Protein 1
Amino acid sequence: MRCILLFILISSCNLFAQDLEFIKSTDTIYLYFDKLEKYDDLHLIKKQNEFIENYTYQFPDAKALYFEVSLQKPYNSKPITISKDFMDKNRNKIITIDILHKYNFVEIQSALYKPKRIFYIIDKSDFKRKKIILKKANYIFLPQIII
């Protein structure tokens, strides 16, 4: 019985590490954003004006991950419309709130920061029938300032 529990514990830790290692190694990351999904300590915030859309993942220690989608020319990129099958085919490249909840802010931030990495936002409020809209986003990297 102890061996089985030990095996389950070790294998689950390894699966989490594989998620993070895969995120570090890929060049394109898709962020699934659903305002209705939330944990008590991790909040999703979307703010929009005529120039930009801001997507924020707020962690419990007041730290946050910021992503920005430009809506004005020449900085905006045309949204890409794809089928919902994309979600199944690229499940390992999509970061959900569940993955963010598994790790702390520093681990996620270090995994996401990589020069020339491309981020796309998949906003559930933009789903239309069997189509998904991908919006190219900029990751606003704010390094930690230690005083």
Note: The mean pLDDT is 77.
Protein 2
Amino acid sequence: MSNRTLGLIMIGAGAALVVAGIIGTVASDGEDGQAAPPETTTAPAATTAATTAPPATTNTPATTTAATTTTTTATTTTSAPTTTAAPPPPAETIDAFVDRFAAAIGDADTAFLFERLHPVVFERHDPELCRTFIQREILTLVDYRLNGDLPEPTPRTYATPAGTTRIESHYEVPVAFGFGGDTFEVTASFAVEDGMVLWFTECR
């Protein structure tokens, strides 16, 4: 018998002995007729700590809305006031001037009567002669008044040392007055220039 065969036989015999020992041990433990209580190994309860995760807090950066203030500047347009030129006063009428002429005689207002002489009179006569004439004769007239209807203007040409002067707005107006105790009905000469009535006379 070789050494290898002998070794295999011994290994088999050893294994049989181990099995017989295990069986014997089991049989001796059950001789009292009581089955050995199964060995209970109480595993400690696994304690699972319930960890309540805090609610996830998401810090969302606050959105700051900047208040936009729109400032509207009120634009005030100041219009320059429109200035309308006042219409010229109505032209002095012949009948109104005759009334003023009569009042000036009554008030001995030589200045008014002199200022209202037409310029052509001063071209024909010396101004001082005319002033004296007014004081000596015109201021002695009484009850000077219109003596009929007002006519339409009739252009007239006056001869002067420098030539002739044509008056377009010339009026030949019937008037009456008292002088030296007598009443006279004559035609007086007037003109309307620049809205003002002027009169004519022959200074002497």
Note: The mean pLDDT is 74.
Protein 3
Amino acid sequence: MVIKRKSFKYLFLQLCVTFCISYILSSDLVGISNDIKDMYLYYFSYQFLGQDISIIHIIISIIPMSVMISMFADSLSYELDKNAAYFFTRTNKRIKWLLNKLVEILIKITLVDILLFIVAFIFFYFLGYKIIDFKEFICIAWKVLILTILTQYILVILSNLISIKINSSYGYIISNLAYIISVLNFYYLSSKNTVLFKYIPFTQQFITVQDNEYIDRSIKYFSKYIVGYSFSEAILYDFIILIIIILIGIKQIRKTEFY
């Protein structure tokens, strides 16, 4: 499993984004909470519900995802451009190759996110946040991590499949646009007090702030949520979207001619 030099550049950028945005967001919790789980929730599931919509809020919400998409947006097209004709004329294992690459991308995203969560913990600690209740922290942190990984993975796979069909630039642009539109729709529909916003694609990481007994609802940033919408439902919804995208990818790789 080779990690390109470009990925390290984006990893450094992602770390810088984490430091800058978490520092900005931490000011919102000053005097409200010093619980590190609240800072985890606020940063990794940032959705600006209950706040006025603004360019700054939108940028803060989309930049971490955009950087992650950039890091892995051309993972498939890069290898295909190098040796697709040689590989696929000598074997008839396109589907196996695709699935192996998708697993490899998932592993890389997971490793990057685990690293970011560890670095974030250290940085949040230096900002003055601490673990108040270990059980509550673990419960929130692992759910945030899993939903973050799944959302990033879905968007990265979407970007890669578009890159194969068209080119990597379009893959990156379309995936980012899809995410921005989803974030804006999530905000708009949530303001209408409709449960429809839980079905918006690419936003299930926001659902972490939903029906969870360990979330402090006295904090205004977590006060709006969907009663009865569970973590398992969010996982199931993400898996359905992921399976659909992968099936489309398999169909696409079968029909694509490589030269």
Note: The chain has a mean pLDDT of 82.
Protein 4
Amino acid sequence: MEKTNKKITSTDFLYFALVILGLAATVMLTNHTMREAQRTETAKKEAERLAEWLTKAGEARAKKESSGVDACDPPSEWAACQEALLNKEGPIGGLHNVIEDDGLIVAETCDKEKSETHGAYIIENGVPPGPGLPPAWAAITADTKLDAPLTLRVFVCGRSFHKIPVAEIKY
């Protein structure tokens, strides 16, 4: 019977070190991904608050009642309404970019060239191109008049700078 060498060699140590490093990297990446997912879900919930307010205000506007924010009632423009909504004393005060602390709160689109758009809320206005055709979507502009009903979509600019749909509403 042949005697086997049961000593641990440097190759064995290298193998164990690589396994431990691989496990540590897996744990770290999983933790990072979970935190990113939690922040994205929080951002979506915040965007739902915005969409809920816009929906209720749209219902009030349809009944020719006040939305509760003068800057969001006709004949105002979107810029004044957005400023009033984002004001800390506004109906959805405290709305902020939960993914990037120094990021934009509202952006026109997700833009990989502008990292501050990550986590921003995006509001698009549906403009009907003609009878019987679906609306063409574009970012709502500051000078959009609020005197007619609007069809809006709310998004969050998510990881990898893609738009995460939250709601489509009548305002």
Note: Helices lie at 10-62, 78-86.
